[in-house]
Amino acid sequence: MNSSPILQITDLRKSYGQTEVLRGVNLRVNAGQLVCVIGPSGSGKSTMLRCCNLLEVPTAGKILANGHDVLDPRTNVNRMRQDVGMVFQQFNLYSHLTAIQNVSLALRKVQKLGRAETKAAALAALERVGLAHKADAMPAQLSGGQQQRVGIARAIALKPKIILFDEPTSALDPELVDDVLGVMRQLRESGMTMLVVTHEMGFAHAAADHVVFMDGGVVVEEGSAADVFEQPRETRTRSFLSRYISRSTH
Ligand SMILES: Nc1ncnc2c1ncn2[C@@H]1O[C@H](COP(=O)(O)OP(=O)(O)OP(=O)(O)O)[C@@H](O)[C@H]1O
Ligand SMILES: [Mg+2]
């Protein structure tokens, strides 16, 4: 597998007022990798992800995303965001637009395609998430899992070089989680590079090429899924994982 980095984060820091929530994060995602970030609530996972496409402005550090120096004021942010897709926990679909209109809107804003080309590209993206037959449905007529798959279609339609996922299944009823995780696995098989913040430990263990455990605004431990889940080195990782295991067996 190609081992060139699509995303490289170096000594990333972010403060809100006096509180430093990212305290020097280093992280790398290589081309074609699925990297999962796990860690307790408040450890800075979302903040780190949002810094990568400037939804949050870092206080210090360096982020290279597909060659864009994200913090360089000369960087064209819109161009950078075409390469760095994002899928949110709450889907963020427009409720007054159909599935295909939601996907098309993003395409039209970003790529200056004609109407027919936009529609074809949007439909192709919906097909990849198994929802071509729901193209004309309104979000309210879709299950949460289907809405999230539209959110994924919207991201992939723009042909990003990497997609950032922030807990994409956390707002879903348990029976809908697997559909969305299945789509993410397929994306990975198709070669998409993905950075996924998740509380789905089974998914991270089974599907991730690399797992990063964050706590207190730093990366405490990282390695292969087998290393991190089966032989964690750090006490904090062990205690986090044991809480998960005890929760899932109750
Ligand atoms: N806009 C903000 N203003 C002030 N503090 C913030 C802001 N956003 C996040 N924080 C703080 O930064 C810390 C990290 O938050 P973040 O949302 O990144 O954590 P997280 O790891 O994603 O947690 P969770 O698993 O609950 O989603 C938290 O202590 C949070 O309260
Ligand atoms: Mg979060």
Automatic annotation (TrEMBL):
Domain ABC transporter: 7-241
Keywords: Amino-acid transport, ATP-binding, Cell membrane, Membrane, Nucleotide-binding, Transport
Molecular-function annotations in GO: ABC-type amino acid transporter activity; ATP binding; ATP hydrolysis activity
Membrane topology: Peripheral membrane protein
InterPro entries, alphabetized: AAA+_ATPase, ABC_ATPase_HisP-typ, ABC_transporter-like_ATP-bd, ABC_transporter-like_CS, MetN_ABC_transporter-like, P-loop_NTPase
Record Pfam families: ABC_tran
Main localization category: membrane
Location of the protein in the cell: Cell membrane
Cellular component GO terms held in the UniProt record: plasma membrane
PANTHER family (UniProt xref): AMINO ACID IMPORT ATP-BINDING PROTEIN (PTHR43166), GLUTAMATE_ASPARTATE IMPORT ATP-BINDING PROTEIN GLTL (PTHR43166:SF9)
Record family assignment: Belongs to the ABC transporter superfamily.
Protein name per its UniProtKB record: Ectoine/hydroxyectoine ABC transporter ATP-binding protein EhuA
Organism: Achromobacter aloeverae
